[in-house]
Design goal:
This is Dynein beta chain, ciliary. It comes from Cacopsylla melanoneura. The structure is a single chain. This protein has 121 residues and is an alpha+beta fold. A hairpin with a 5-residue loop joins strand 1 and strand 2. The longest helix has 13 residues. The chain is globular and about 30 Å long.
């Protein structure tokens, strides 16, 4: 499991996401690093961090043990996922206030059921 001391040079916004992921899911830091070296997933993560128009980020640990990032709701997920949603669409994430600009949490393997509960709240 990763902690803040093992990745000192990481962007604070990525550090926040990694910190939440490592508390929520059990995985080795290599899986995080591999996800960020995969162009498709890296683009999704950085679009979420840097682009105003990208409001949601979902990260799933697949049954095969691979971290996968997407900006759309994972409708066919069989494992646990986490979500990060910008509170306001016009904000890109600033390094010093990441947590205050996000709603984040865990998604169960049946996300449609959880989405219904989340929208009722």
């Amino acid at each position: 499991m990763a902690d803040e001391e093992t990745t000192p040079d990481i962007d604070p916004r990525l550090q926040f996401i990694l910190g939440y992921l490592s508390r929520s899911m059990k995985f080795k830091i290599e899986k995080w690093q591999k996800m960020l070296t995969t162009d498709e997933y890296k683009k999704v993560v950085y679009d979420f961090l840097d682009k105003v128009s990208t409001r949601m980020l979902f990260i799933t640990l697949s049954a095969g043990g691979v971290l996968q990032a997407t900006s759309t709701f994972p409708s066919h997920c069989k494992t646990k996922s986490v979500y990060f949603i910008k509170k306001k669409l016009f904000h890109s994430l600033f390094e010093d206030r990441v947590h205050s600009h996000l709603i984040y949490g865990d998604l169960c393997p049946k996300p449609i059921d959880q989405l219904a509960v989340l929208t009722e709240e």
